[in-house]
Ca2+:H+ antiporter
Amino acid sequence: MAAAAAPTNKLHWTTVVPVLALVALALTWGRSISGVVVGIVAVLLGGAVLAAVHHAEVVAHRVGEPFGSLVLAVAVTVIEVSLIVTLMLSGGEGTATLARDTVFAAVMITVNGILGISLLVGARRFNTVQFNAEGTGGALATVATLATVCLVLPTVTTGEVGPEFTSGQLAFAAIASLLLYAAFVLTQTVRHRDFFLPVARDGGPVTDDEDEHADPPSNAQAWLSLGFLVLSLVAVVGLAKVESKSIEAAVDAAGLPHSFVGVVIALLVLLPETIAAVNAARRERIQTSINLAMGSAMASIGLTIPTLAVATLFIDTPLHLGLGPTQIVLLAITIVTAVLTVVPGRATRLQASVHLTLFAAFIFLAASP
């Protein structure tokens, strides 16, 4: 996948920002902070997210595609889970549904938002974009299954009152999600790796001559980025805890439903992923964009739900995973539309417009249910 080369200058912003974020974390942890400090911390939090994904890209560029998309998806999901858990630990209104709102938002953002804008960027430049229907179809089937098992079934099961699994049902969903995600990763990286490689305009695989990527970083650069990736993630986890009350207060002050906190979290952590997908689409590597979108959707469910299932053993908070009727309708039409987009193995601006319309409907209904 495309990735920025690792910076040769160690004072590059991607190495400075994580350090500054850690300093800010040490100075603000456990303290009441003012509005100005909240703003500074928010900037550093955003910078740490961008730095984390940048360093994940460097590592990803070293290991190649489709491993690169996997590295990015896992890195983004670690950030997402960290934000969810820190906000759950802080308690308060909406904690029980925070995971559901965030994971559902991640699915809508990736399958409609990231996919839609990637298709639009690619189609505007190349008229029709090509991708591998076999790999993309398998990824979409995995996303649909994970979303149904983890987000739809809790609404219709009767073991617990409300949209909640029993302990046994949650354990089953967590294990099934983890195994299904592992099966997909094995398929993507080992068994059928060619299904997830970029496709040329004639429908064949992209050759090395067509690949406009920069030279891969050295082992030393990759290890350095791996170290800064860890530091960035630590900073994100800590600063998210510091900012948790401010995020909720800002949503409430704007007059938005408290559930919109989950949308804010998903938008925050998936912004760098969106940028990476759009950059790939500009180079006519739409398969890489799709790998990023579907991989993030899968990881958001397949890794988040098992992690939260374990976290509920230590956090005395109910976990309401079941979607409401409006959300279920949006998920259903999204899956149907995505199937129709994927089957031909090519797409135009029309398919992009349809997905972006669904994304706009999700954002509007999340803000005005």
The domain at 13-367 is CATH 1.20.1420.30 (A middle domain of Talin 1).
